[in-house]
TrEMBL record:
Entry-linked Pfam families: 7tm_1
Highest rank taxon of the organism: Eukaryota
Keywords in alphabetical order: Membrane, Transmembrane, Transmembrane helix
Annotated TM spans: 30-54, 66-85, 105-134, 146-171, 201-224, 244-268, 280-302
Full protein name: G-protein coupled receptors family 1 profile domain-containing protein
Annotated compartments: Membrane
């Protein structure tokens, strides 16, 4: 059999033979395609407001946590926009050659890597602020933050470079070209049939998971180092617990798609016995739901966490915050 699949191979993904269950109903398919659109609307509703607030105020631009948060929100916004652009191109039936598709995938992977590295930088910033409050400004001044953000974008370029390079190599040698630039389809029809591309993507995913494990370790170290202090007791307890809950929730949502993707890539080694329909569904859920969900929730989680941004959101949406009135005795 030819290891390079043509467009007729899509029929094997959609059905495995006569009398068997066909691929998902149109309703289920539309729900999966609708998830990125809903996430884009949710992000577009609040992220530009937060970005304008952070970048327009001098006092917020002088704080490292707000600069790193702005970089996370900016990366997530562009990542979802690239996802929507790819969905629109595929829905319109536009055929793409390997180079435009590679550029689209490259920018998407770069934006995702930038978001992960920015979260890692936020962990370092929190650790320095809590563990060394008197040396915090010396260890992490604002000028160093701008350099860290620039380094994040430079490093983010190298993560997807290997996978995209292998992608171009595969399509330059393949006799049959696939003109649909859809990551789920590419994972089913390309990655599982080209070992170098499979290995490069697996190493990239494992590298990102390793970074997220370092992030989780940083928060655990921070918790155990401050457990004996008064951070977790008294009036500050609820705010400290809320901060850690938001961070852990964000990390959990970031871990899930990568773990599922790594499992899928490992299962691709047994592509001859693996059901292509199940592989396609797994890829669709990862790309259209699990990867998008933390991006859509991040501006709401962090926007409600920081008081300056929370007050802005309540004012922008004309909501009244409950106030506590202390009687004068």
């Amino acid at each position: 059999t030819n290891p390079h699949l043509s467009r007729k191979s899509l029929t094997t993904v959609c059905r495995k033979g006569e009398g068997e269950t066909h691929l998902p109903s149109v309703l289920n398919w539309m729900v999966l395609q609708l998830c990125p659109v809903l996430a884009f609307l949710a992000i577009l509703l609040i992220t530009p407001v937060l970005l304008v607030r952070i970048l327009s105020r001098v006092d917020l631009r002088q704080q490292t946590r707000y600069l790193l948060l702005a970089n996370v929100l900016f990366s997530d916004l562009l990542f979802v926009c690239m996802n929507i652009l790819s969905a629109c191109i595929n829905s319109a039936g536009v055929l793409m050659t390997e180079w435009p598709c590679a550029v689209l995938l490259f920018f998407s992977a770069t934006l995702y890597s930038s978001g992960v590295l920015s979260i890692t930088a936020m962990v370092l910033d929190t650790c320095f602020a809590v563990l060394a409050p008197f040396r915090y400004l010396a260890l992490w001044p604002v000028s160093r933050t701008y350099g860290a953000i620039a380094a994040i974008w430079v490093i983010s370029v190298f993560f997807p470079a290997a996978a995209v390079g292998m992608f171009l190599w595969y399509h330059s040698t393949a006799p049959c070209a696939l003109h649909l630039c859809s990551l789920p389809l590419l994972m089913v029809l390309t990655v599982s049939h080209f070992r170098p591309l499979h290995v490069s993507m697996l190493l990239t995913v494992m590298g990102i998971i390793f970074i997220l494990l370092l992030v989780l370790s940083g928060y655990l170290i921070l918790y155990f180092c401050t457990r004996s202090s008064g951070v977790w007791k008294g009036e500050t307890s609820s705010r400290a617990r809320g901060t850690f809950l938001i961070h852990y929730l964000h990390l959990f949502l970031a871990f899930c798609p990568l773990l599922v993707l790594m499992i899928e890539l490992m299962l691709c080694n047994n592509s001859e016995t693996m059901d292509p329909k199940a592989s396609l569904w797994m890829s669709l859920v990862v790309c259209n739901v699990l990867l998008i969900l933390p991006k859509a929730l991040a501006p709401y989680l962090y926007g409600l966490r920081y008081r300056e941004l929370c007050n802005l959101l309540f004012q922008f949406f004309h909501l009244n915050r409950p106030t506590t009135i202390t009687p004068v005795i």
